[in-house]
Write a structure and sequence with these properties.
Elements lengths: L2 E5 L5 H11 L4 E5 L3 H7 L11 H8 L4 E4 L2 H7 L2 E4 L19 H13 L4 E5 L7 H11 L6 E5 L9 H6 L4 E5 L3 H14 L8 E5 H32 L3 H9 L20 H14 L3 H28 L8 E5 L14 H11 L3 E5 L5 H9 L22 E3 L3 H5 L4 E4 L11 H6 L6 E4 L6 H7 L2 E4 L6 H4 L6
Parallel strand pairs: 1-2, 1-4, 2-3, 4-5, 5-6, 7-8, 9-10, 9-12, 10-11, 12-13, 13-14
Length: 480
């Protein structure tokens, strides 16, 4: 029986291994992590992450051929294939600070594999890593090998949160990179055989190691670039009276461009886009490619600009101050159908409003108060370290209250910000909300999900990104 072990029980490791176990009943899959609380949650009825369809898959396999354990060394030593899905945060100090990936957790995983292995292993990079990580891992393993042979593969994940299980069941492609040696090709085939249980062969792409590592960074950079492109257009649309939704629709009809990822918003978030682009920038700079590095830096700059622009629009339209005013924030997760808040634009928007002394009342159907307070008091990039290395009890931000109902959040508010495109927000009773708000009542739709005309009929002053401006905003100077 083939045994697979995955080091890291997070957003990538947990769902990916659950689906492998589900699709390959003949393979034993163990997910290991040193975090006792995380493993306890995976073994409970309340899984540590929210992802549609994940519950059913886990419950069907758990205890049969899917195991969650803190016995890291035992499962690593018994496995034939080891997936490594540990955190690769952005460095906050030293060489490459603010851009380069911190490979501390990767290196300690590699050293532990070398310490406990008694048989040959295939080691698979699953977390997003900078190009040439495989080479570093190979060196650590070979210099500590004690006669055991290791093959390193790169098998980056291409999951979108909110649809991760669907993405795993029916992937666009599975990418496997390995050495172009007989042993390397044999290792590629072994991993290919696992995916071939349910993925058609023409969707399993094999490349060399560096191409696989770089393809992941490139894919995320291209997607983020599309969002920054349409967000840059949204600013121009507001200035000229064009409607960004109409522009996106017209542009997306060109089959060479396509319609996906062309929705203007308050900005992109999530655990990958910014981190991977910073990583790409660092690699370009290390290779002397300054112009290429500057090109990708601009994608992040436009994203930051979009978030700042949104905050400035709120403050300027409310008579240039939100000091002491209650602002309702609807949505804190970086997108709908996930509880994930990593790099969510809501953090920067909330911090911007708090900087102007606003009082915030936040509601998100999937994010806890503890998580929101943690995010608003944490330093940048701290979120990507394992939970036990994050600040234990972050100081609560006292101007923030977290509520479990949109009507409570908006009661007596001066303005509402929509920061996540949850479907529930489209069907709220906005007449009831309007009646209970301070006047003039503002709505700032950072996701373009509301019917602007209807809201204006009710009496709201509405700002929707990239849409023709309400007359109210025309005279307001927005600092950029």
């Amino acid at each position: 029986m083939v045994k697979i072990c995955c080091i890291g029980a997070g957003y990538v490791g947990g769902p990916t291994m659950a689906v492998i176990a589900f699709k390959c009943p003949s393979i034993e899959v163990a997910v290991v992590d040193i975090s006792v609380s995380r493993i306890t949650a995976w073994n409970s009825d309340q899984l540590p992450i929210y992802e549609p369809g994940l519950d059913e898959v886990v419950k069907q396999c758990r205890g049969k051929n899917l195991f969650f354990s803190t016995e890291v060394e035992k499962h690593v030593s018994e496995a034939d294939i080891i997936f490594v899905s540990v955190n690769t945060p952005t460095k906050t100090r030293g060489l490459g600070a603010g851009k380069a990936a911190d490979l501390t957790y990767w290196e300690s995983a590699a050293r532990m594999i070398a310490d406990v292995s008694k048989s040959n292993k295939i080691v698979v990079e699953k977390s997003t890593v900078p190009v040439k990580t495989a080479e570093a891992i190979e060196k650590i393993l070979s210099h500590n090998s004690q006669g055991i042979k290791y093959q390193i593969l790169s098998n980056p994940e291409f999951l979108a949160e909110g649809t991760a299980i669907q993405d795993l069941f029916i992937p666009d492609r599975v990418l496997i990179g390995g050495r172009e040696t007989p042993e390397g090709q044999k290792a590629i085939q072994a991993l290919k055989d696992v995916y071939a249980h349910w993925v058609p062969e023409d969707r399993i792409i094999t490349t060399n190691l560096w191409s696989a590592e770089l393809s992941k960074l490139a894919a995320n950079a291209f997607l983020a670039q599309r969002i920054s492109s349409v967000n840059a257009m949204s600013a121009l649309c507001e200035a000229t009276g064009a409607d960004v939704a109409q522009v996106s629709h017209a542009v997306g009809k060109d089959i060479r461009i396509g319609s996906k990822f062309l929705n203007a918003s308050v900005g992109f978030g999530g655990s990958c886009f910014q981190k991977d682009i910073l990583n790409l920038v660092y690699i370009c700079e290390c290779n002397g490619l300054t112009e290429v590095a500057n090109y990708w830096k601009q994608v992040i700059k436009v994203n930051d600009y979009q978030k700042n622009r949104f905050v400035n629009r709120i403050v300027s339209s409310m008579f240039n101050t939100v000091s002491g005013k209650k602002i309702a924030v609807l949505g804190f997760a970086f997108k709908k159908d996930t509880g994930d808040t990593r790099e969510t634009p809501a953090i920067d928007v909330c911090k911007g409003l708090l900087g102007d002394k606003s009082r915030l009342s936040i509601y998100d159907p999937q994010v806890t108060e503890d998580q929101i307070q943690r995010d608003l008091s944490m330093k940048k990039f701290d979120w990507d370290h394992p939970i036990h290395l994050q600040p234990m009890s972050p100081s609560a931000v006292k101007e923030v209250t977290v509520v479990w109902d949109a009507y409570q959040a908006t009661k007596d508010a001066h303005g509402i910000c929509i920061l996540t495109e949850w479907d529930d927000f489209k069907t709220l009773d906005y007449q009831k909300i309007f009646d209970n708000m301070q006047k003039p009542a503002f709505i700032f739709d950072g996701r373009n999900i509301l019917d602007v005309a209807k809201l204006r009929e009710i009496g709201f002053i509405v700002y929707s990104i990239g849409k023709p401006l309400d007359p109210w905003f025309k005279d307001m100077q927005v600092m950029s």
